[in-house]
Amino acid sequence: MLFNRVNTNPLILMVKNQRFFCKHCESTFMAKTPIVDKECFISNDVKRSIVLNLCETKSMDLIAREHCVSPTSVARILRLTEDRRRKNYLPRILSIDEFKSVNTVDASMSVNLTDLEGSHIFDILVDRRQRYLFEYFNSYPLKVRKRVEYVTTDMYRPYIDLAKKVFPNANIVVDKFHIVQLLTRELNKLRINEMKKLNTRSKEYKILKRYWKIPLTKNWELNSIYFYKNRHFKNMTSSVDILDYMLGKFPNLKEAYDFYQNFLLSISNNDVAMLEDDVILKS
Questions:
Q1: Distance CA 68, CA 82 (A)
Q2: Spatial distance between the Cα atoms of 123 and 120, rounded to a whole number of angstroms
Q3: Is the CATH number 3.10.180.10 carried by domain 93-173?
């Protein structure tokens, strides 16, 4: 059993658990002590000391070294201090998204739960694995989970499957940021595929490689007034001229570009009707 340090050395107490036998029910049980939890090596005094240190500006590695435990144990003790709030409220519009966490937690990615209606963080979970999230949301009564009307998330499949299980009345909405990110990535892949078909010394190849940002830029933000010299063109050119050259040379890129820009425009204007337009859906 690990206690706090004496001077600079860790104090370890060797304890033998006494086993008792009940003659009435013919069962056995172990003696209990408030000093340490059942099947735990770290004493409660050490845990309380770690919690006090977590309130200060110290790294988990430093706290672990000071208490002669591992950083994983510090992260586990931190999880035990989570707010045991009354489980009677969940946001009507709940956002689930992950972010890169510190290396000392059990999982490298943590989860940010946001109340989009109130524009504030509802909770932060240290683990994004489905099993942990399922246990967390199931700690709320079913009637509370039924009040959640919308769940926004990225295209991470475990989040979508989780939301369907724990929020029976909620509509699953993919975050528009991640949709734009996916379309941007696919448009860039298409540009690269077109480059692979060309000779690396050709003019078209060099233009697609040098000006890769232009097709990804919102077309209403491109500069059509400022002209500058370009080694690949004889005359002075603008960003719009370079874009027109690209789209004229590569029809596949133009078709994908038009769909991408229409989507960006509808998102910027919050125009749902434009998203549902048959022309956009068929393009």
A1: 23
A2: 9
A3: no
**DSSP annotation of 219:** G
Tokens standing for residue 280: 């956009």
Q: Does an H or E element contain 63, and which?
A: helix 60-67
Compute the CA torsion angle 218, 224, 228, 229 (nearest 10 deg): 90
Q: Which helix (H) or strand (E) holds 256?
A: helix 251-268
DSSP string covering 268-280, please? HTT-HHHHT-HHH
What pTM did the predictor assign? 0.56
Nearest to 77 by CA among 49, 103, 112: 49
Give per-residue pLDDT as tens, 226-240: 887 877 787 888 888
What one-character DSSP code corresponds to residue 222? Answer: S
CATH 3.30.420.10 domain position(s) in the chain: 93-173
